[in-house]
Automatic annotation (TrEMBL):
Name of the molecule in the record: tRNA pseudouridine synthase B
CDD domains linked to this entry: PseudoU_synth_EcTruB
InterPro entries: PsdUridine_synth_cat_dom_sf, PsdUridine_synth_N, tRNA_psdUridine_synth_TruB, tRNA_sdUridine_synth_fam1_C
Residue ranges of every copy of the tRNA pseudouridine synthase II TruB subfamily 1 C-terminal domain listed in the record: 234-288
UniProt family annotation: Belongs to the pseudouridine synthase TruB family. Type 1 subfamily.
Family annotation (PANTHER family): PSEUDOURIDYLATE SYNTHASE TRUB1, TRNA-PSEUDOURIDINE SYNTHASE
Active-site residues, record numbering mapped to chain: 38
NCBIfam families: TruB (TIGR00431)
Function: Responsible for synthesis of pseudouridine from uracil-55 in the psi GC loop of transfer RNAs.
One GO MF term: RNA binding
Length: 295
């Protein structure tokens, strides 16, 4: 069995780690999430189990859709509602000011990673440095495809609700912090819902924290790795190419491929793993099957 991928619902107050550990206990196998969701937030989190845990990194860059509520006039050290208050502003939020600057936070730009995050620096998560009072600056390029203002409560300590469609790796907490800074008010994330990861929607997610969730139920609701990797092209190979793949040997593609990139390798309709197409050969990257005949 190659394992699978689960679209799970993370409730507020539950850590991503607790969710993964529960899946591992129910299925009696290893499991791993494809991108953490802060404890104060709720919504979609993808969890791979079994051999599919080797595919975690390929889901991390999927676009995300969030519904977020920012509170202005206050900043916290974690950039969210759970943090320690660091500044308080006497200014007032005005919708017209907000609308005037929103365009600057759409498109592709470089974003600073929050000091309290799981992003690693020299092998250690940033939050470990932050707890010791050390500020490590890490930046990454992100894309915000959509930043729509849904509602605005003006005035002192005003709040605004947004719909955000962004690239994988985007920090909504940093978005709130920088937006608040631009307005001269400061801001933090008061509430956050991850509504979608790629095609995986919150309406179809499973709450494994509920009582009575059993192994068979999760297996029935899980997606096979090849279906979960809907965003990758698939290449059907013959017996000889399949044997090369299973032994980690590069081989020519039996079909023409366009741009270089990762592809799914199948034999007789069975998923063998992933290979990288370098414009001339297929280079095995993740070999999941042990033979050419996958049950």
């Amino acid at each position: 069995m190659l394992g699978g991928v689960l679209n799970l619902y993370k409730p507020v107050g539950v850590t991503s780690r607790v969710l993964v550990e529960r899946v591992g206990r129910i299925l009696k196998t290893k499991a791993g999430h494809t991108g953490t969701l802060d404890p104060f937030a709720r919504g979609v989190i993808l969890v791979c189990f079994g051999k599919a845990t080797r595919l975690v990194s390929f889901f991390q860059e999927l676009d995300k859709v969030y519904r977020a509520r920012f509170r202005f006039g206050i900043t916290t050290d974690t950039y969210d509602v759970k943090g320690r208050i660091t500044t308080v502003s006497s200014g007032e939020l005005r919708e017209e000011d907000l609308l005037r600057v929103l365009g600057d936070f759409r498109g592709t730009f470089v974003q600073e990673v929050p000091p309290f995050s799981a992003c690693k620096y020299r092998g250690r998560p940033l939050y470990q440095y932050a707890r010791r009072g050390e500020h490590i600056t890490l930046r990454r390029e992100v894309t915000v495809h959509r930043l729509e203002l849904l509602s605005c409560l003006e005035g002192a300590f005003g709040e605004a609700e947004f719909l955000i469609h962004c690239s994988g790796g985007t920090y909504v907490r940093s978005l709130a912090h920088e937006l608040g800074k631009r307005l001269g008010l400061g801001a933090y994330v008061a509430a956050l819902v991850r509504e979608r990861v790629g095609r995986f929607r919150i309406e179809e997610s499973i709450d494994v924290m509920q009582k009575g969730i059993e192994r068979d139920f999760l297996l029935e609701r899980s997606l096979p790795p090849e279906k979960a990797l809907y965003f990758l092209d698939a290449v059907e190979v013959g017996e000889e190419e399949a044997r090369c793949f299973l032994h980690g040997t590069p081989f020519s593609s039996p079909v023409s491929l366009q741009a270089p990139g990762m592809v799914k390798v199948l034999h007789g309709g069975a998923f063998l793993g992933l290979a990288f197409w370098d414009s001339s050969r297929l280079l095995p990257r993740v070999v999941l099957a042990e033979s050419c005949h996958v049950a």
